[in-house]
Amino acid sequence: MAEHDDKSNAFGGAAIFATTHWSVVLKAGDAPGDESTRALDALCRGYWYPLYAYIRRLGHSPHDGQDLTQSFFAYLLEKRLLAKADPESGRFRSFLLGSLKNFMANEWRRQSAQKRGAGQTISFDTQDAEERYAVEPADESNPQSLYEQAWAVAVLEQAAALLEAEYARAGKQAMFDRLAPCLQGDRQDLTYTQLGAQLNMTEGAMKVAAHRLRQRYREVLRAAVANTVADPLEVDGELRYLMRALSR
């Protein structure tokens, strides 16, 4: 039981708000250390695709989209933007998009004259980027709306991945695989009785397991959002904003 409580604190309890990724980055300012470097790197690796989708929706080619995204992160990870981060804005989502807009307006031409990929940056699968972009809505919607929708999806995906890893560590991968569709409200193809038969569990036990999975997912989702805001008081507002973005 104590082990479970520790995990809950790591993801869903009050302890997650003490030192989140974005708060570490903001506190570092223009004098970053190893901790802030790791925190910013984790955030960037989790949220590169919304920026790529935004750039592509502006009309840039796949090649330029890749070049811009990589060049921007090289610029960002060199810490030249951190001193300009406004703690009052609170949200990494807003900071990142604003920084990208400024970069595209003032820096990209100068940066692109240098060797692509020079300096510290993150890597991402360019084929995966285009495959994901290809299934985005084909209408000419506002690039910022697409960015916010892609960001919301990225948060949900990160939460689901963290939850799956937690279940796998506990030896419950099979249970997660069978119950995962209920996280987003998808209907199960099988009844709880049928699912329980596959896992040698009763119908009642499967219902309890599904309830616990959904509850744990909400905790992990809140933790994922908390990592992108500077103040724990902003978590609920950011969650509501992301849910609205998904419904547009």
Would you kindly provide a written description of the structure presented here, covering whatever features stand out?
There is one protein chain. The chain is mainly α and 248 residues long. It has one domain. The chain has helices at residues 2-11, 21-28, 34-46, 48-57, 62-77, 92-106, 108-112, 126-134, 143-169, 173-179, 192-199, 203-226, 235-247. 31% of the residues are buried. The model is unreliable at 1-18 (pLDDT under 50).
What's the helical proportion of residues? 55-70%
Mean pLDDT: 79
Shape: globular
Helix/strand structural class: mainly alpha
Outline the low-pLDDT stretches. Answer: 1-18
Radius of gyration: 20 Å
Strand content: under 5%
Q: Please, how many helices?
A: 13
Total domain count: 1
Order of helices and strands: HHHHHHHHHHHHH
Largest sheet: none
Defining traits:
248 residues; mainly alpha; 13 helices
SSE layout:
Elements: H1 2-11, H2 21-28, H3 34-46, H4 48-57, H5 62-77, H6 92-106, H7 108-112, H8 126-134, H9 143-169, H10 173-179, H11 192-199, H12 203-226, H13 235-247
Helix pairs in contact: 2-3, 4-5, 4-9, 5-6, 9-10, 9-12, 9-13, 11-12
Summarize the structure.
The chain is mostly helical and 248 residues long. It contains 13 helices and no strands.
